[in-house]
Amino acid sequence: MANVKHLETDVQRVLSDIIQNDIKDNLGFITITDVKITNELSYMYAYYTIYGNENVIENTKKALERANGYIKNQIAKRVNMRKVPELVFKYDKSYETGKRVDEIIRNIK
Questions:
Q1: Per residue in 27-39, is it b (16+ CB within 10 Å) or e — as a string?
Q2: Is 21 exposed, middle or buried (0-12, 13-18, 19+ CB in 10 A)?
Q3: pLDDT, block means (10 residues), the chain with 109 residues
Q4: Range of the domain at 50
Q5: pLDDT score for 36
Q6: What are the backbone dihedrals phi and psi of residue 9, each rounded to the nearest 5 degrees, phi first?
Q7: Which residue(s) pair with 86 in the sheet?
Q8: CA 17 to each of CA 10, 32, 48: distance values in angstroms, whole numbers, following the listed order
Q9: Are 48 and 87 spatial neighbours (Cβ–Cβ below 8 Å)?
Q10: How far apart are CA 5 and CA 62, in angstroms?
Q11: 28 near 86, Cβ under 8 Å?
Q12: How many domains does the chain have?
């Protein structure tokens, strides 16, 4: 289990670097918030947030899907893994949820 946690941290760091420096698509202000790898190493879920409206979010999603194979290949080269799991990008809505909660709290006062 600790090994998977270590792997998740390494993948998150490498993934952020790949997105910042290697991807030619304009991904805007994107942040990799978390990486979760299933115990059997079948799937690697990369959670991200992006600053922008629905259109920006949708364009980022498409760009990540287009670059998925390249990104997975780069992770395989940079992180010492016997098997590279299937990479799945998921939009992290926690920032939006936090903003809504803040707004609700401000309106209560």
A1: beebebeebbbee
A2: exposed
A3: 84 95 83 94 94 89 94 93 91 83 85
A4: 2-108
A5: 97
A6: -65, -45
A7: 43
A8: 11, 10, 13
A9: no
A10: 28
A11: no
A12: 1
CA dist list (Å): 12 to 41, 57, 61, 98, 101: 15, 20, 17, 22, 27
Task: Locate 57 and state its tokens.
Answer: 């979010």
Q: In this structure, are residues 55 and 63 in contact, taking their beta carbons and an 8 Å threshold?
A: no
**C-alpha 3 chain-centroid distance:** 20
Give me the CATH number covering residue 74.
Answer: 3.30.300.20
- The pTM is what? 0.84
Partner residues linked to 30 by β-bridges = 50
Amino acid sitting at position 36: K
